[in-house]
Specification:
Radius of gyration: 24 Å
Oligomer: single chain
Shape: globular
Number of helices: 5
Number of domains: 3
Strand order of the largest sheet: 8-21-18-19-20-17-9
Order of helices and strands: HHHEEEEEEEEEEEEEEEEEEEEEHH
Strand content: 25-35%
Largest sheet: 7 strands, antiparallel
């Protein structure tokens, strides 16, 4: 199976059907064309599926600090949806506080989106005893696409190991090279003593790709003991460096949140597509945490791509769109009209596909705050 970008290059050249034009089009030029048509099609999808569509809905963490009013937005930010603080980190069923969107002449409490580049302003200025991680729920825009080879791929479906695997003498650490991820902080770990089936659960307080830290156990782990993560439903892989013509890797935390990551080649357990829910730099590697476990961890040489929202059977739409723009300035009127007709037919199918598989929600009504509204930074009384 080929990566989307390679198929896009082939689709454009095939659609133009002119060897002279094809030779003049470099992959760098075609990639720039892809970035342009990708944004245009993205906006058309949003309009075609409804103004309040949940397409592109994603989340990122913004840590509020005492005395700081202005905060940058994620690199792929398009439109805000809500701003929440969970009682327990990552527990969507326990919302402790929330802030509403406010206008430029409101004194709050709330947050105002200035622009995607200028960031957001919190009013009144937070006065906190400690920094607080909040979750910004937003609609993302299109991201730069690429494909490459993943260096590390992992899952949390449980593992069996022996004491040599890295338990320290005080049993508060577990070392396993390239097995963990910083995203584990706040999740629980369950350790089962194979000797008498003693089970103890701890909350992970620190994590890197080599080590997780939690409170001491009452027993010393030994060969055959098992470790599981009962409340963590995600997997991960690390991004590689794209070769020339294979797209562009953006090295900015949270940039790929909400994007689709597709493993399109491996020895076993492919293809698979997962949504990226967290993206960050760890020990020199850019890690993408993905929603839901792998259906079998891909093995061997794992090739992945940042995939467009359109399904593989319809993504030739990008190639048609780019070919129309390339053919226009070169006076190929007959060819251009044929491409426009082909694009229109495929667009109908694409629009229908999104209408059948997405849920639109009515606009959220925001009421002015009551005079007795609690200060959101103080929590419930």
């Amino acid at each position: 199976m080929d990566a989307f970008i390679d198929r896009f290059y082939a689709d454009v050249r095939e659609s133009l059907a002119d060897p002279h034009i094809q030779k003049r089009l470099t992959e760098a030029q075609l990639y720039r064309q892809l970035c342009t048509v990708q944004r245009e099609i993205w906006e058309q999808l949003l309009k075609g599926s409804g103004r309040e569509s949940t397409i592109g809905r994603t989340e990122a963490t913004i840590t509020l600090q005492s005395g700081v009013s202005f905060y940058p937005l994620p690199g792929n930010f398009r439109r805000e949806i809500s701003f929440l603080k969970y009682l327990t980190d990552g527990d969507r069923d326990q919302i402790e506080k929330s802030l509403r969107s406010i206008g430029p002449y409101s004194d709050g409490p709330g947050f105002e989106i200035l622009t995607a580049n200028r960031g957001m302003e919190i009013r009144p200025t937070p006065m906190l005893s400690a920094s607080e991680p909040w979750t910004l729920v937003y609609q993302k825009g299109p991201v730069r696409l690429h494909h490459a080879t993943s260096a590390v791929i992992g899952d949390l479906t449980g593992a069996t190991f022996d004491a040599v695997g890295g338990w320290t003498s005080d049993t508060t650490y577990l070392d396993m090279e390239d097995y963990f991820t910083a995203h584990l902080v706040g999740y629980r770990v369950t350790v089962v003593d194979a000797t008498d089936d003693t089970t103890e659960t701890r909350t992970i307080t620190a994590a890197t790709n080599d080590r997780i830290t939690f409170a001491a156990l009452s027993f010393t782990p030994a060969d055959g003991d098992t470790i599981t993560f009962p409340d963590a439903d995600f997997c991960w892989l690390t991004f590689g460096t794209p070769a020339a013509g294979d797209g562009e890797l953006i090295k900015m935390a949270d940039y790929y949140n909400g994007s689709l990551v597709r493993v399109y080649s491996a020895t076993d357990n492919w293809p698979q597509t997962r949504e990226c829910i967290d993206y960050y730099l760890e020990d020199g590697l850019w890690v993408a945490v993905l929603r839901h476990h792998w259906t079998g961890v891909p093995t061997g040489t794992v090739l992945y791509e940042i995939a467009p929202e359109i399904t593989e059977d319809l993504d030739k739409l990008y190639g048609y769109k780019a070919a129309i723009q390339v053919a226009g300035p070169r006076g190929r009127r007959v060819l251009r009209q044929q491409l426009i007709s082909d694009y229109a037919e495929l667009w109908k199918a694409c629009k229908g596909s999104f209408a059948d598989t997405t849920m639109d929600r009515g606009p959220r009504r925001i009421h002015p705050p009551r005079g007795d509204r609690l200060n959101p930074y103080e929590g419930a009384s």
